[in-house]
Amino acid sequence: xxxxxxxxxxxxxxxxxxxxxxxxxxxxxxxxxxxxxxxxxxxxxxxxxxxxxxxxxxxxxxxxxxxxxxxxxxxxxxxxxxxxxxxxxxxxxxxxxxxxxxxxxxxxxxxxxxxxxxxxxxxxxxxxxxxxxxxxxxxxxxxxxxxxxxxxxxxxxxxxxxxxxxxxxxxxxxxxxxxxxxxxxxxxxxxxxxxxxxxxxxxxxxxxxxxxxxxxxxxxxxxxxxxxxxxxxxxxxxxxxx
Length: 242
Prior knowledge:
five-stranded parallel β-sheet; disordered N terminus
């Protein structure tokens, strides 16, 4: 009996050593699948009037600004208010310079800033020297706050053929932009909207609301496409990405 037990123990011990030797053999490490790093969306600030910030029933995300951001993959910060402009202060008694200070200037630096306006300055027949002065001050304030951040000035948008005053405002803003070496996009010269909603002419009949001023949903989508077309030659449709 003792011999059988000893033989059995010996056999068990031998088997255990053999198993241990087998499990201690080197095992190739598992390869961790590469994880694609997410691409950071460009942060773009868009400051403007009711075309940009929206009207009753049309929130900012439903304007051309929101549509542009969706189409280009931006993270948009939409600022401004209806009735405002470079001089025009609207019902909230704030112009673009004041709105920049209150709504945007305290934020971290974006990848680009768009200023879109001048319509209300034309409607209210604001003095052209004050318009150019305020536009220059705003550009300077943005550059001082965020040196090196691309800045684009977009002139007044008109829901059809523009009046003479709108053209004068456009010219004053174009000169201010040129003086500061800022790219200027000109919706009036490029005839983004044409004709008259009231007379049923031009593309205004398709894209402008009954108020004869603001774009309808199709008009906002169209505006976004026109803005994108103007940004691409400047290489600014994807700011901050090289």
